Amino acid sequence: MSHFPGAPKLLKATIAILDAVTFFPKGVIVLQYNPETLRRTLQVRGAGAEGSDRLEALRLVAPPLETIQLEAEIDATDQLEFPAKNPDTVLFGIYPQLAVLETLIYPKSSQIKKNNQLARMGVLEVLPIESNLTVFIWSLNRVMPVRLSEFSITEEAFDSKLNPIRAKVSLGMQVLSTNDLRFDHKGSKLFQVYYKQKEILAKVNTAATVIKTIASLL
Length: 218
Hints:
The chain is α+β, with helices and mostly antiparallel strands. It is 28% helix and 28% strand. It is globular, with a radius of gyration of 22 Å. It starts with 13 loop residues before the first strand and ends with a helix. The mean pLDDT is 85.
């Protein structure tokens, strides 16, 4: 594939997988093509319900519940043009890329086995398995700890061995805030950086608006 000289380097949407305790990187998923649209929904977390005490109307108890939805495309066409350079794609198509996304919402099989062994030994309570921390990166200003809440795959083409070679993936993610994680959790600290960046950008916009207003009055 040819590139224009001097063309700006394209930053691709990325999902990073980090150890929830040490923050050690466990894997990186770079989306093959940036989604054309990104839908974000912010649900207010207020102190009172509608029609409740008027003293509570303007109180916010926590950051809003932010959810993200996007659709990504994965296509093996380019790789299959050069089979010698992409033997894994020839053998499996895009299934490895789909599998790495799917395993984000699967507990480790080894941990399931371990919990089953503990249950057989008479352990009355087995704590739910804590997964790795998933971080969604969409530009340098938006690096968010997230939890996958919705995941669907539409496989659109297959090779002769029925391996998928083209698919659309729909991802739904919930941004994990200080209301979802312990305040001293590393993921919570990452959210605080994301939140502070929002405040900084909001001040930039406010300053620009004030300047324009003053200029219009002169």
